[in-house]
Structures are given as C-alpha cells and as structure tokens.
Design a protein that fits this description.
By secondary structure, this protein is an alpha+beta fold. About 25% of the residues lie in helices and about 20% in strands. Strands 1, 2, 3, 4, 5 and 6 form a six-stranded mixed sheet that branches. It is globular. This is Cytidine deaminase.
Amino acid sequence: MTGRAVADPAAGCTDPVVRDLVSAAHAAISSRYVLARHQIAAALLDADGRLHVGLHLDAMVGRASVCAEAGALSAARLATGAELVAVAAVRYPKPTEPPVARIVPPCGLCRELLLDHAPGLGAVVHDGSRAVLEPLADLLPHKYVGTKWPAALTTHT
C-alpha cells in the first residue's frame, strides 16, 4: 500500500458497467501497488455479474512478467465457466508522477489472449473525453487465428 491519495478514475464514468469494472480495478491496484512490482490491476465481468480481479506481476526478466488481464482471466476461469463480458485495467501512478490513476487498454498480447477465451469481450478504453466500452475485437482487427484448437473451444458457456 502506498498511503497516497489517488482518485478513482471510475468517478467520471457514467455507464454503470464501466464504473464497476474501473472501480474494482482501481481498488485492487490501490491496495497492492508496489513500485516496479505491481502497477496495473484488471477486472473482468462475467455473464453472471461476478467480477474477477488480476494484478500485474513484474519480473526481473521482462518476458516473465504477467499482465493484470491474464491474472484476471485465470481467476475468472478458476471461478466460473460463464461467458466473459467486459474487462477494464487501471494503471497506478509512480511516486514521481502526478497522483492520477488512469484507465489503460489491454496490451497486444492480452488482446490476443482475451479474444482466444472470450471472442465477444468488451474492453474499457478512454476515448479522450470519457471511458467507453468497445468490442475488444475492434482493438485487434487482424487477430491471429491458428489451428491449435477448434473454434468451438474458444468460448466457455
């Protein structure tokens, strides 16, 4: 915990789904932020209305790091087989930055991973003026499609 007051970016969200996701991610990273260890938290909403939270895990070897969205996806899959509906991630500011937490979109790797497991997933992004829920597929228009498993296995209902 940092002891720093950092406003919840959900305060400006008008959509209740967006607000709940952003608030859950903000609460998680606010309580677990550690410089150079945990800077982002993500929240995933399933079709049953449950939230699943994940924490970014940094590592000395960058490739070994785990994104918050991957952690939230793992938590969701451990808890339920319900369809995943939406995701939001919040980045906590470093001590040298202004005390403003911000909504961040999933990185490219997480876009691929999330779409493998939830092709209809929405992602909270900031469009410059407000937080909005966009189809994640729109953020990754040319997703890799392989032959590792049948398309029917990419959704869990």
